[in-house]
């Protein structure tokens, strides 16, 4: 499948010119790829069905966001855990690691991005905005 070609421009550089989309002849996917796509669709349907049974979908999503934030922050060296972040958010404990703010900052940046997605497309500019929000006042920021 050819997705485009390069065309030399008058100033000397080459520009990539994509082929018209969608393809006139359609797509020729392998049987294995179609099976994987079908399996993924089925799994998403199951997840959607389970969420209909949850008493509070937003709380369910918050737990996943909190887990992701804790895991990502720990890659950067944060010692605080998901439990620390939950305790900090619910204000149930005062003896929390100092770096729990890194996780909370990550959650705040992610929520900013989710809010922006309501009226802005997923694009490089949005990713840059979310990254800027993440780095704003970050403990290890060099901006």
Question: Could you list some keywords that capture this structure?
Answer:
single chain, 143 residues, mainly alpha, 2 domains, two-stranded antiparallel ribbon, 5 helices, 55% helix, extended
Describe the protein.
By secondary structure, this protein is mainly alpha-helical. It has 2 domains: 4-51, no CATH class; 57-135, no CATH class. It is 55% helix and 7% strand. It is built from 5 helices and 2 strands, in the order E-E-H-H-H-H-H. A two-stranded antiparallel sheet has the order 1-2. Helix 2 (57-75) packs across helix 4 (100-116), helix 3 (82-90) crosses helix 4 and helix 4 packs antiparallel against helix 5. It is extended and about 65 Å long.
Characterize the largest beta sheet: strand count, sense, and whether it forms a barrel.
Answer: 2 strands, antiparallel
The fraction of residues in strands falls at 5-15%
Distance between the terminal alpha carbons, to the nearest Å? Answer: 43 Å
Outline type: extended
**Order of H and E elements:** EEHHHHH
The percent range for helix content is 40-55%
**What oligomeric state do the depicted chains represent?**
single chain
The whole-number mean of residue pLDDT values reads 86
Radius of gyration: 22 Å
Quick one: how many beta strands? Answer: 2
List the helices and strands and how they pair.
Blueprint: E1 4-8, E2 14-18, H1 31-51, H2 57-75, H3 82-90, H4 100-116, H5 124-135
Helix pairs in contact: 2-4, 3-4, 4-5
Can I get a quick summary?
This protein is mostly helical. It contains five helices and two strands; from the N terminus they run ββααααα. A two-stranded antiparallel sheet has the order 1-2.
């Amino acid at each position: 499948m050819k997705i485009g070609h390069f065309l030399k421009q008058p100033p000397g550089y080459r520009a990539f010119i994509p082929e018209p989309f969608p393809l006139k002849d359609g797509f020729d996917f392998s049987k294995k790829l179609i099976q994987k796509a079908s399996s993924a669709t089925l799994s998403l349907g199951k997840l959607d069905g389970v969420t209909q049974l949850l008493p509070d979908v937003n709380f369910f999503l918050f737990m996943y966001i909190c887990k992701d934030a804790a895991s990502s922050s720990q890659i950067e060296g944060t010692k605080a855990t998901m439990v620390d972040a939950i305790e900090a958010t619910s204000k149930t404990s005062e003896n929390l690691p100092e770096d729990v703010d890194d996780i909370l900052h990550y959650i705040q940046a992610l929520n900013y991005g989710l809010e922006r997605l309501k009226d802005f497309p997923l694009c490089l500019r949005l990713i840059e905005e979310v990254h800027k929000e993440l780095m704003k006042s970050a403990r290890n920021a060099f901006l």
